[in-house]
Amino acid sequence: MTMTPHRADTSAPALVLSPTDPGQGASRRVGPYPWAMAAAVAVAVSGAAMSLNGVLGGWAWYMPAVTTVIVVVTAMALLRRVRAQPLLVAAGGFISLILILTFTFFRRNSIAGFIPSGETTDMLGQYVRRATETVLAESAPVAPNVGIVLVTCAVLGLVVILVDALAVPLGMPATSGLGLIAVLVVPAMIKPQSVGLLAFIITAVGYLMIVGCSQWFSANRLQLGAGRNPGQFKRAAMTGGVALLATLLLQPLIPGFDRGTFPQGSRLNPWGSSSGLNPLISLGNSLRSPTGEGRITYASTATSPLYLRLVTVDRFDGETWAPDNRDDTRRGGVARLDPGHEINATDTTRSITSINTGQFTSPYLPVPYAPAGVNGLDGSWSWDPSTLSIKGVDANSHSQQYVVVSAMPTLTADLLARSSARVRGISDDFIRPPEGVPDIVRTTADTITRESNTSYSKALAIQRYLRSAEFTYSLESPVQGGYDGDGLSVLADFLAQKSGFCIHYASAMAIMARLEGIPSRIAVGYAPGRPTGKTVSLAGQGALPEYEVDARDAHAWPELYFEGLGWVPFEPTPSRGFLPAYATESSASGGASTNQNNDDLIPSGAASGAPLPSTAPVPLPGGGAGGVAGSQLLPVLYGALGILLLGLLLASPRLIRSGLRSRRLRPGSVASDDTALQSWAELRDLAIDYGVPPRPSETPRHFSARLRRSGALGEEDGRDGAAHRAVNSLVQDFERREYGRPLRAQAALEGSRPGGTPASIAAARIELIIAALRANARRLVKFRASWLPPAVMNRWQSTLGTPFRAVSRHVAAWRRAAARTLIRTRDGLRRVREG
């Protein structure tokens, strides 16, 4: 008996699309979609990158970053233009990112200038280590050296790939903002001005462009050639606008996320009023979690307790104090330093100090004030004539051993009292009080200095008031009172509550001094430390006792300027630091001290020059002990990179499934027989994804009947009837292809029908089936089908199990061969015995 293939009834009804159906007019052209989406992603990520100005110093890093973004989006657009599947588009983005990074940073250490080599890998390790050291060593803005710029460009390139993946193959354009937030959260936590208005606007425009392009050129309309619907763009704009509005309006309602530095506050604020991070605002966090790290040892010929000074903060905008590095006026070489202002004092106190910074890492160098010269440093260093702060050019303070010669006028109360000449040659940055000073600050300054006639007496009056019994030193009350910072409103709260820590006292004295016409600034560094019990031999000075300081001794204090004498330190913080002799009431009046805290501050060892312990740790700008910028920025960068990689890994099954469907149904497949096979394969995979897998012994018609009866497609006579008819039509097309004669004329006829090409018709049928399956599936089934499609997971499981199955087959074959050999040997031995 001869078996003949079953021939399907070609007269059976088929799904016919009307001219208004999505399948009408399918086009082989992709159109402007890839380029429009690439432009939207480029605008969004480049705008987000703008917010990093201030986290990274200057703008030199921005051009490589924008170049990286443009190259990656262009490469992905080209691949999408030639209809590459989504997984290949993402892979192309990674490859283009590697090539542009190699061309930009490793041109001399690569093959042909852009292909990585073994030498490229070695240089990459060096650059990453340099970036890590920069992040850990410096406070914002960090130096944009080649290592940190490389890491920034790499992260931005990965953000481009993530945003593109969320917006296009995954079909979740609204969530593409997660990639942009991963960039914006860094300046939101670090910069005093937060994200910045311009960067926020450009990022928001790019985000709205992404959402709009995703709706305007949706994948379904792109593949099936449907006309555009203006209402889609309106809905996209409304969705994006609501999301942005919620970001701005809902964040103030989050308790505890409104002031100060991350994680206590620093909300994502585009208008620039966030406190952010600088060497002073972050004091509260470090004070409340002292680590005792960053140990520095020193020995000095000084006869009074020694402060080690790192940096001066003198710029105050009404919201916060901040350092002004004055990079354009800094001078190179620190062997000889000039104070930059006239010193008329006849007596000068000189001291020599040997310092070993150990593991303490900062771009600033700790030195006693006022340094006249530094010797023994490694690397290049520069200094600011206005403040005498010393900063590394290509070095930092880590493992430095050096000797500092300091020279200060021998200050006495009489000398300061006679220094009443008008201040000359001092920048307005140190003199000008901020605008909008609260009444309580101005009134307090006027009241406590009412009976003072000289700058010196006014300074003493302010210091005496802040050190009086009315004020208490507290690390907790600022947090409870909600003023953990140093702005004018914070200062008003501090004077009202009369409780705070050193930054509040130093800031209050500096502002009130400016209100009274006295130039002022704030110094940040270390208060006098503790003896180690060891000695250090210093050339020409013999053996000197060694002292140590660490994060527990960090401190902030005000410096006031007196004409002819220079900058003079004061100590308004009660029970902290050391009150110099010229700043005591006994020195000023010649009588007994009226300062109630002096007995606690000047123990018997002070006269011998022994540094005094300080119990209040203060974070240092960029220091290893208190380098909040480094300790927060590095986890943020690595965390963002980890989130990107994890997101791509979790999304890979969905990406692969979407890419497979796109390749099967793309309009380029116009042959009806190929379309029938691909559509049938997609139908089987959909059934597997939604829990109705085909059985090995089933015919196509039996499988389709079981699928329709399972309820996965809904009721056949209800609103899901079109899906049932679509399944029936796909089965008929497959049966024609497998069991019927080639119908070339029929295929040509179908391609000329108003309903569209076979590919577009098949794609429309698949879309109907998908819609019905999702409408009738449980949530867990829909989630599994979208993110962990069994059709993909089963293939992965089968692929991973192939080597084990091959080994099992070989083992089974060896066992059978061994068994046969054993049987033959046994039979042979039996025949020998019987013979």
Q: What is the tally of beta strands?
A: 16
**Count of individual helical segments:** 26
Q: Give the low-pLDDT segments.
A: 1-28, 219-230, 253-289, 479-485, 589-633, 744-754
Span from first to last CA?
A: 52 Å
Mean pLDDT: 74
CATH architecture of the largest domain: Roll
Count of structural domains? 4
CATH class of the largest domain: Alpha Beta
Widest sheet: strand order? Answer: 6-9-5-1-14-13
The dominant shape is: elongated
The class by helix and strand makeup works out as alpha+beta
State which percent range the strand residues make up.
5-15%
Can you tell me the CATH topology of the largest domain? C8orf32 fold
Task: Name some characteristics of this structure.
single chain, 835 residues, alpha+beta, C8orf32 fold, six-stranded antiparallel β-sheet, 16 strands, 48% helix, 11% strand, disordered N terminus
Provide an overview of this structure.
- Helix content is 48%, strand content 11%.
- The chain has four domains: 33-272 and 629-658, no CATH class; 287-625, Roll (C8orf32 fold); 667-788, no CATH class; 792-835.
- The longest helix has 45 residues, at 790-834.
- Strand 15 and strand 16 form a beta hairpin.
- The model is unreliable at 1-28, 219-230, 253-289, 479-485, 589-633 and 744-754 (pLDDT under 50).
- The radius of gyration is 37 Å and the shape is elongated.
- It contains 26 helices and 16 strands.
- Helix 1 packs across helix 5, helix 5 runs parallel beside helix 19 (628-665) and helix 21 runs antiparallel to helix 22 (721-739).
- It has 835 residues and is an alpha+beta fold.
- The strands form four sheets. It has a six-stranded antiparallel sheet, with no helix packed on it.
